[in-house]
Amino acid sequence: MGAGLIGIHSEGTVRLSDEDIVRSGSLSSPEGIEAMYDRYGALAYTVALRILNDEGAAEDVVQESFLSIWRRSTTFDASKGSLRAWLSIVVRNRAIDRLRGARTRERYDVPVELTGAPSTLGDPWTEVAAELTSRRVRAALDALPVEQRQTLELAYYGGYSQNEIASVMRVPLGTVKGRVRIALEKLRGLLAQEQEVEWQSR
Amino acid sequence: MAEPLSCSRAEELLALAAVGAVDLDDSTELDRHLAGCHDCRIVARQNAAVVSLLPVALEPAQPPERLRRAIMARIYAEADGGSASRSALRRLLDRIPASRPLTAVGAAAAAALVGLVVWMNTGGRSPAVAPAERFTVAGTTAQPAASGTLTYDPSTAQSVLTVRGLAAPSSSPGAVYEVWLVPASGPPVAAAFITQQPASGTWTAVIDGRVTDYRMLAATVEPAGGSPGPTGTEVFSADLSRS
């Protein structure tokens, strides 16, 4: 008989944190993508399903989103953006494209470095935002006037442009702009109060 | 020349942009303003943080397990340079010496393996199929850079072994890496030869049988044509026990 096959060298199962996942090169590895899916796959599927209201289509969109992330992983700089926010944008945009027919209109995408980085810019609110629970976020949304909440939903989950929203809601374009701006300001305020974060004035 | 964008107008556009409702016509002005306005960049970041929370408020929906399998099967296949492709498997199978008393795969098993690969790559939508199991492969002191994965499909009782960072055997001309399955008691069982894919440099093998019936998988350097039992240096291994 031969040399002893003794000793277990297996590394075992490694659970990756968000920091591990986004560490340089991790999104380039299947293990990194797998950890990202384990952490955010349900969120991605929930977003896609909300927009498309079709399980098969939602599965397709989530699969396409993770594959696109895997294939372009080198373009994500963890020091500048939030992984969860970036993934949400990728999934949301793909779902909207599928819902409304592959970029029926050109879209402006917020630069990924402005998707909510941690405290590198001295903005504590974006840090605590990551810790907010679904209950608190739902409560804040419920506290918005119904027309502001509907405007947000038409834009974010429906993929409507500002002009389309104005047409659907039968209000002037300026009203749409104001509703979105005020809604986001209110949400920021409500959620900051929840976390007792002192607001930095400009 | 058009007037530069004011912060007040920029904030309106930034709110629309955060929810994906701003038109591309406004984007050039907005980008130019953001490049020069620290305060508005802060607003953009805060808006993005708020909007990123909208999905958190949704009632969570659980994706089916097949979705995870489908995604990871494609990613692992791409990571291996497509080594799970039909032609690569054919080359792999052709390298197994015909004289081996235990062949890792016969013709029927080869067809089943191709089926396994096709199933993995098409997302396998049968809800009754048990999920694939993965075991981590690690190199020994002889090959410390080696690492990989053994993916076992219970529905077909077949596995795909992929290893990276493994140097070619150099102990003797024609030396090979032979893969063994080690039972809880008794001698190791020869399972396969692992060979290197030219395109990706990744080493792969397909293994027939229920690997989970064994305690451990390991590979050793053996002379050309392999050995009936392990004789050479162990180069990598995987713990197959479920704990």
Q: Which terms would index this structure?
A:
heterodimer, A: 202 residues, mainly alpha, 9 helices, 59% helix, globular, disordered C terminus, B: 243 residues, alpha+beta, eight-stranded antiparallel beta barrel, 6 helices, 8 strands, 23% strand
The residue ranges of chain A in which pLDDT falls below 50 over 5 or more consecutive positions are 1-15, 116-123, 196-202
Please, what is the average pLDDT of chain B?
77
**Tally of strands of chain B:** 8
Assign an overall shape of chain B.
Answer: elongated
**Hey, which two chains have the biggest interface?**
A-B, 86 and 78 residues
The rounded distance between the terminal residues' Cα atoms of chain A is: 77 Å
Estimate what percentage of residues of chain B fall within beta strands. Answer: 15-25%
Our measurement of the CA-to-CA distance between the termini of chain B, rounded to an integer number of angstroms, reads 71 Å
Roughly what is the average pLDDT of chain A, rounded to an integer? 75
Q: Which structural class best describes the helix and strand composition of chain A?
A: mainly alpha
In N-to-C order, the SSE pattern of chain B is: HHHHHHEEEEEEEE
Helix content of chain A: 55-70%
Radius of gyration of chain A: 20 Å
Number of helices of chain B: 6
**Strand sequence of the main sheet of chain B, in spatial order?**
1-2-3-6-5-4-7-8
Tally of DSSP β-strands of chain A: 0
Written as H for each helix and E for each strand, in order along the chain, the element string of chain A is HHHHHHHHH
